Amino acid sequence: MASTKTAPKKAASKPASKQNDNGTLKEHSALLKLFVDEIKDIYWAEKNLVKALPKMKKACTTAALAEAIGKHVEETKIHVSRLEEVFGLLDKKPQAKKCDAMEGLISEGESIVEDTEDGTATRDVGIILASQKVEHYEIATYGALVQLAKTLGLEDVAAILAETLQEEKTADISLTEIAESEVNYEAAAESE
To answer: Which domains does the chain have, with CATH numbers?
Structure first.
């Protein structure tokens, strides 16, 4: 009797991006349009963080937290420049599109500062909380953008975005370390 072996299934291949004869992506690619739209969104977010972070730094009590936020202000300026480089690689003019999520996160951070007492570790805990919400939003956004860039065959763009993604992850870890090493415990000892 003959064996009825079936051919092994082929691994699913990655979907090919729509490309012109010269290998560049077609302008009408729906995925590319979405990608560019999201780059505009995070560009707005980063530009607005450059304005918001110094206010948060000024509200800090703990030197380590103020230093970490100050460092991240400088990194955020670099993130803006990198996004401008990405626009160039995409043959697009840098353009910001209002990011409702970041607007809300910045507003929430401002509210925490207003609702906590100046010079307290409790305020610093709130600043860390608000800052980590921002970092997690950025980590999610940059993580997705890196994968989309790879899917679209934009390896140079993916590399630039991956660098920023790593810096956002490092900033988040730094905030956690500051909270765990001193600020949370100091806040817990404060009376109302």
So the answer is: 30-189 (1.20.1260.10)
